[in-house]
Amino acid sequence: MLNSLDLPKAPAHCRVVVAMSGGVDSSVTAALLKAEGYDVVGMTLQLYDSGAVPRRAGACCAGQDIRDARRVAETLGIPHYVLDYEEAFRRSVIDPFAASYVAGETPVPCIACNQTVKFRDLLALARELGADALATGHYIDSRLVDAGTGRRALFRPQDLDRDQSYFLFATTQAQIDFLRFPLGRLTKPETRRLAERHGLSVADKPDSQDICFVSRGRYSDVIQKLRPDAGLPGDIVHLDGRVLGRHEGIVHFTIGQRRGLRLASPEPLYVVAIDAGAARVTVGPRSALATRRLQLRDVNWLGDLAFLEGASARDVFARVRSTRPPAPARVLRDADGIVTLELAATEEGVSPGQAAVLYDGEGVGATVLGGGTIARSFPPALEPARDASLLAAL
């Protein structure tokens, strides 16, 4: 008999480490597992401020959040530890975030945080502590798909408005097999009601929304502090080649941006390309943002292994933004391992550095097939001739 976490022993004999951020979701995760009789250990990661600065609205893992996590652990009667991961967080998340911006990209640091600090470093520690699983408060479903091997798969959750699978596509198979997500089949209102039922002080606590280490909502301030060379000035040019003005550093721009260009133009202009090497920002009309073709790097494929064997193609549903639902697409892999995503409908303002996440469907329970980081997007105005050899090989 398997218990509720698909483990072959009684809950009392299963140690589960819960990553507790101090928010309502991870707190309810710990409460549910404790109520079922599991040996629960709460872990809170001190990531970026030594746990001492005042909490900023929309942030996570700041001083107040650590205190909230500790209070919840006391209420539940579980051991709680605060781990100083500040250096690991800087090395694995903040530094790559700054480097990506300096390269003209728009990174998603929450993906890097899950991939490294949480699901690599914390997971390794949980194993060292003899834990049978690491549980988090993410809204994503996880199910056992092969009882013989213990292989699990990821699925879109019950609450699609809270779906966090976009931020977890880079999770490896070994990590998935060790992770558990008890909130995957709950809605956010149900989670808050459970927090009230368990008497948790965070039942009405607002959700974190902003990037935790960006204290005033200005990414460029953080980047220029870490990379003083990021402020190299350059030209702002139109797609037709005209130089329209100057800028004070490409880190102040993202693909699709309209505000802050400070250009005298009779037509609305948007950032359509960023050339880090030349410190050049290219602008054009909104129509120039439309793209249907993306090249991916650092692909993490969780679907059938046949896709990784030689040239192949598969129809999928893809998300190129966390706020958009999956949409029909086709993913292609050539004989050299280069992965291209062909979207059925155009998307605007897709930037390198963001993620493209792939599914086998679009609704509740759709399987997460993996995804990758967008290396290049090809708006029609900038797209080179299509690679006919790739299509011919398929």
In short:
The chain has 394 residues and is an alpha/beta fold. The chain contains eight helices and 17 strands.
* Number of domain modules: 3
Low-confidence stretches: 50-59, 384-394
- Label the structural class: alpha/beta
CATH superfamily heading of the largest domain: HUPs
Q: Give the helix proportion (percent range).
A: 10-25%
Question: Terminal Cα separation, in Å?
Answer: 45 Å
Looking at the overall shape, the CATH architecture of the largest domain is 3-Layer(aba) Sandwich
Mean pLDDT: 90
Strand content: 25-35%
> What is the N-to-C succession of helices and strands?
EHEHEHHEEEHEHHEEEEEEEEEEH
Count every helix, treating DSSP H or I runs of 4 or more residues as helices.
8
Major β-sheet strand ordering: 12-15-14-13-16-17
Number of strands: 17
Rg is: 22 Å
Largest sheet: 6 strands, antiparallel, barrel
CATH topology of the largest domain: Rossmann fold
EC number: 2.8.1.13
Domain tRNA-specific 2-thiouridylase MnmA-like central: 221-284
Organism: Aureimonas endophytica
Function: Catalyzes the 2-thiolation of uridine at the wobble position (U34) of tRNA, leading to the formation of s(2)U34.
Structural overview:
With 394 residues, the chain is an alpha/beta fold. The protein has 3 domains: 11-197, Rossmann fold (3-Layer(aba) Sandwich); 232-284, Adenine nucleotide alpha hydrolases-like domains (SH3 type barrels); 290-393, Elongation Factor Tu (Ef-tu), domain 3, CATH 2.40.30. Helices cover 24% and strands 27% of the residues. The strands form 4 sheets. A 6-stranded antiparallel β-barrel has the order 12-15-14-13-16-17. The chain has a 5-stranded parallel sheet with strand order 3-2-1-4-7, sandwiched between helices. Strand 16 (355-359) and strand 17 (368-377) form a beta hairpin. Helix 3 packs antiparallel against helix 4 (109-128). It is globular and about 70 Å long. The termini are far apart.
